[in-house]
Amino acid sequence: MCCKEITFQELGFEPNPAQKLFYWTIDNNFNREPLYFWKGRQVGATFGTLAYALHQMIVENCDICWIGNNLAAVKYARAEFHKLYNKLPPDMRSKLVRDNRYEICLKSGASIDFVTEHMCGKCRRYDFVFMDEAAYFRNLQESICAMMPAAKQLIITSTCTRKECDFYRLFMENILYTRKLPWYLGSSELQEQIPKYRINLSSAAFAAELCCEILDE
């Protein structure tokens, strides 16, 4: 079952346009090529990856790996995943049989691992691997190569503020498998904050952090 066939309200949130585009792109990636998402600040892409992961665990009994660029990001993602899980109606909740620092496993057999970049290549096989804030990985190219044999589907998301990084290069080199998630696809709450960002950020910073564009100097 595709994610679009699942009622997101059962997870306690309504996807915004950026998240809907994110889900549609994954569900229609029939070639299973790695996907690159350049996300604007505060569009809900990280939360969207966790919601998609939970959907796939419940509906398709999938094994997931979520990779962050540092331990703080991993802890945050794990806590947000727990919030999503706890909002599920009791009849949708498969019992947790393992819940530790790095892994959450359901009685159904589905699981999600939360690891940092240095664990790439040391993991088992997964249905989905999400790399979050990949522009800040120490060596994104090596991490992707290490995880390719372990992932049926590899999904790479990040904000990006400079051209001199692996994420920007790979995004531009794989343009058929990329999507930009700029601020105007975010929630109504984000759009209300845009005037504040315009005042507090330079034109270059606003373009990079919210519009998914890097201005030429």
Identify the notable features of this structure and list them briefly.
8 strands, eight-stranded mixed β-sheet, 217 residues, 20% strand, alpha/beta, globular, 37% helix, Rossmann fold
Would you give an account of this structure?
The protein is α/β, with parallel strands linked by helices. It has one domain (16-210): Rossmann fold (3-Layer(aba) Sandwich). 37% of the residues lie in helices and 20% in strands. The chain has helices at residues 17-27, 45-60, 71-86, 140-147, 166-173, 188-200, 203-210, and strands spanning 35-39, 63-68, 96-99, 103-106, 111-116, 126-132, 151-158, 178-181. Strands 3-4-5-2-6-7-1-8 form an 8-stranded mixed β-sheet, with helices on both faces. Strand 3 and strand 4 form a beta hairpin. Helix 1 (17-27) crosses helix 2 (45-60) and helix 2 crosses helix 3. The radius of gyration is 17 Å and the shape is globular. It starts with 16 loop residues before the first helix and ends in a 7-residue tail after the last helix. The mean pLDDT is 89.
Brief rundown of the structure:
The chain is of the alpha/beta class. It contains 7 helices and 8 strands.
Element layout with pairings:
Layout: H1 17-27, E1 35-39, H2 45-60, E2 63-68, H3 71-86, E3 96-99, E4 103-106, E5 111-116, E6 126-132, H4 140-147, E7 151-158, H5 166-173, E8 178-181, H6 188-200, H7 203-210
Parallel strand pairs: 1-7, 1-8, 2-5, 2-6, 6-7
Antiparallel strand pairs: 3-4, 4-5
